[in-house]
Amino acid sequence: MERRKFTREFKLEAVRLIKERGVGYGQASQDLGVHQSQLRSWVKAFADDPQHAFPGQGQMKPEQAEIARLKREVIKLKAERDILKKAAAYFAKEST
Predict the structure, then answer these.
(1) Residue 3 contacts by C-beta under 8 Å, 6 or more apart in sequence?
(2) With bands split at pLDDT 50, 70 and 90, how would you rate the model's confidence at 59?
(3) CA 85 – CA 9 distance, rounded (Å)
């Protein structure tokens, strides 16, 4: 069975339904066809960071993007370091 995907707008409307309109998790779950635990996690994610909640496919929070950029930079720097080590070893061997 394929995993269902929900848009950011759908999730925001579900959170609004629970928070602003006061609909219970059980009723919202039945109305929207989403499990209660999923609704609870959406409400928690929205409460933790409303502006960056539900970033969507391929979109990251600024902190996650920075971490990914730094990881790529570390990989590049390690490759450069390894090349320089090999070059230094080659030239040291050649001079003897």
Answers:
(1) none
(2) low
(3) 52
User: What average pLDDT does the structure give for the chain?
Assistant: 87
Confidence of residue 51 (pLDDT cuts 50, 70, 90): confident
**18 three-class SS:** helix
Give the closest residue to 43 by CA, choosing from 60, 22, 19: 19
Taking the C-alpha atoms of residue 3 and residue 91, their distance in angstroms, rounded to an integer, is 56
Which helix or strand (DSSP H or E) is residue 6 part of?
none
Question: For residue 30, what is the enclosing H or E element?
Answer: helix 25-32
Q: Are 11 and 42 in contact (CB under 8 A)?
A: yes
